[in-house]
Amino acid sequence: MKFRKKLGGRVVVPVALGVAASVGGLALFSQGAVAATSTGSSSTSGANSVTYGGTSGAGSAPITNVKLNPATIALGKTLFVENCSSCHGDTASGTSRAPNLQGLGAATIDFWVSTGRMPLADPTVQATVKPSRFTKQQTLAIDAYVSSLASGGPKIPEVNLGSASISAGEGLFSTNCAACHTITGVGDALAGGVYAPSLYPATKTQVAEAIRTGPGNMPRFGPGNLSNQQVADIVKYVKYLQHPNNAGGIGLGHVGPVTEGFVGILIGLGSLMIAGYWIGGRAH
Ligand code: HEC
Ligand code: HEC
Q: Per residue in 93-104, pLDDT tens?
């Protein structure tokens, strides 16, 4: 083949240069990624000792608890029996198919139902995010019913971002969350077929609920690990990731400079190959 012959000849040098440049670029790219990951993981294990003081806490409280209305418990019970009790039992005390929910707290119930993880269709795989089957009022009613059965567990957090800081949130996020969710929040596969999902669909409340309740294989961060102010800072940073101010750069799925660099490498390699092909062609 003509093209093949050319590739075997003069084009080899420019193409080799292109490949070398790309490999160099990739090495830089992955070094950056590794550095970010190791920062994250080393500090994740030390999550207990995170002290990011100095966030101004003036103004209203960064987190208040949603008050559940006892008048909705009856509706919640009906919804629970129809949609949940086949697996969790009528009084949420668990069966061989699904765990006990009593005493987990309203935040846990609210997180699993509002993210569409529950009710579960297939109990053999990690519950996935899907549009919730219930309205917000119905979800709060289910929360009220299950929390009326036993006390304990975190309450549903209402996050106030007024006094929260994106830069403090970014530091806390890279220390405590990026190892699993990546620094841009797109999510990543973890060991054992588990994945840390993208954080882009999560609401403020869901982010705070995930932090405080530790769903599935995610660690739980209690008030001793992260203060309410720090949770609000992280929530503000996650919200920022969802809607970054695109000041410069190409919008490549909000993944920022890493993707831009990577796309640059691909475009660079492509044009080097074309240039090489052209030089090779002219030499004949
Ligand atoms: C088909 C069976 C099934 C149905 C129906 C179901 N669940 Fe579940 N649920 C499970 C299983 C299995 C788990 C454990 C899954 C896991 O950890 O990933 C679970 C986990 C949960 C958890 C997390 C428990 C924990 O320890 O963190 C909550 C909360 C929950 N379910 C609430 C509900 C509610 C509320 C409903 C009804 C709206 C419901 N589930 C319907 C099977 C079911
Ligand atoms: C050890 C890995 C790990 C760390 C560290 C971690 N997460 Fe997670 N996170 C997970 C996994 C796994 C899930 C999915 C749980 C499931 O669905 O069973 C998850 C789920 C979530 C969700 C739910 C998103 C959705 O799909 O609804 C949010 C929000 C979240 N994490 C935020 C955070 C934040 C904020 C931090 C840091 C404070 C953090 N995570 C730290 C592993 C991690």
A: 999 999 999 999
How far is the first Cα of the chain from the last one, in angstroms, to the nearest whole number? 15
Whole-number Å distance between alpha carbons of 213 and 222: 8
Minimal-distance CA residue to ligand 2 atom 21? 210
Contact 154, 107 (CB under 8 A): yes
Contact between 169 and 103 under an 8 Å Cβ cutoff? The reply is no
Asked if 195 and 188 touch (Cβ cutoff 8 Å), the reply is yes
**Residue 120 CB partners (closer than 8 Å, separation 6+):** 87, 98, 127
CATH 3.10.20.30 assigned to domain 49-164+197-242? The reply is no
The token pair at 41 is 């993981």
Question: 84 in ligand 1 pocket by Cβ < 6 Å?
Answer: yes
pTM value is 0.75
Q: Measure 218 CA to ligand 2 centroid, in angstroms.
A: 5
Q: Does residue 63 carry a pLDDT above 90?
A: yes
Ligand nearest to the CA of 185: 2
Tokens of 55: 């966030």
* pLDDT one-digit tens code per residue, 251-269: 455 555 555 555 566 666 6
Residue 147 is predicted with a pLDDT of 97
